[in-house]
Amino acid sequence: MIERFGRDLVNDFDLDDPRFNDQFNETLNYMVRKCPVAHSQVGRGYYVLTTQDDVRAAAQNWKTFSAAKGYMPNRPDGIPYLIPEESDPPLHTRWRHKLNPHLSPKVCAAMDQPVRNDVNELIDRFIEKGECEFISEFGALLPGWAFFKNVLGVPLEDLPALVNGVEEGTFAPDLDERARHFSGVFDYLEKHLKWRSTQPARGDLIDTILAGVTYDDGTEAPWEHKVSVLVDLTFGGIATTTFVMASALHHLATHRDQLQLLLDDPSLIENAVEEYARYFPPVVALGRTTTCDVEVAGTQIKEGEFVMLGYAYASRDPRHMDEPEKIDVRRQGIPHSTFGVGPHRCIGSNLARVELRATLEEWLKRIPDFHVKEGTAPTYVTGYLRSMRSLHLVW
């Protein structure tokens, strides 16, 4: 194992190891089969659960696996917790009950045409050039456009700085740098929230955040909680969907038979969205803290330990699907956990699906024959999330 992966994955795993980034698929496939619980000695240490049954059970059992102490392993000092993601019921339930209607299936379905308009506006910018750097010219822009224009109403000209802040706040090698960028995102969004509080109501998501919630003890949500909710939604809205859409197009650019399959039968695209989300997981694992001693797959985990729920691993579990290491857009009943499981399941999953479907359908209509630019290859960065940093396409 050490010769193959450069370290002992069972007893000395590291999400930030460059080898994990380079051998991502191979590592996922190995661990879900051979290592139901891995341990990391990095920093304060953490465990990683990999099988679908264990990940789902832990995600649904918030009383034992609490989200209230954050989802980041070895969290840098000074980073506030994000609500509602990094909270438990009943506080979590109060906020999700208020926020969910703004991102319901019906509401997101109504965003389909505006998102398609954005897809085509972005394609218009580079289609005549015959090439693009997909991440900077499309993938990093569309999720922000969709979320800012249709949900938040944040000025689009501020999007590049926010995208950079989210990326560096997640992946910067230096933990102090992560904290600095994270703080920058907080500061910007707090200023925007303060400004909106002086404006006439629009009946949108930000108005709902400003109205706040009443907690079970009768107190009103404080200002810092409202800012935290906006930051949480922004991180989720612009930090994840990019990876799935970029990976899907890279796969199609390098597998002509798979591209032809979707060109011949566009009705497969809806199912392809689920398969690509399963196979190209932007969320590798999110953390919980144990509230008591617990045993998982024969491993004893003490109270107060940090445990990563390996959503990416669980989506490759051979106990729940045939040949999970292969991409099959005709696969039925795709049991992936890309959008999370349980009460903390991703609030933006409906919008993400709209973005992915619109991207695939409109791109294939307008650019049906495309390839990876000769002499280039996509670059990646991996931690508890996974991101593609560059993808050069030509047609």
**Count of DSSP E strands?**
12
- Main sheet attributes: strand count, strand direction, barrel closure: 5 strands, mixed
Strand line-up across the major sheet? 1-2-8-5-3
Mean pLDDT: 93
The CATH class assignment is: Mainly Alpha
Radius of gyration: 21 Å
Q: Per the principal axes of the C-alpha atoms, what is the gross shape?
A: globular
CATH superfamily (homologous) name? Cytochrome P450
**Helix share of residues?**
40-55%
Would you kindly provide a written description of the structure presented here, covering whatever features stand out?
There is one protein chain. Helix 7 packs across helix 18 and helix 16 packs across helix 18. The model has no long low-confidence stretch (mean pLDDT 93). The relative contact order is 0.18. The chain has one domain: Cytochrome P450 (Cytochrome p450, Orthogonal Bundle). The chain has 18 helices and twelve strands.
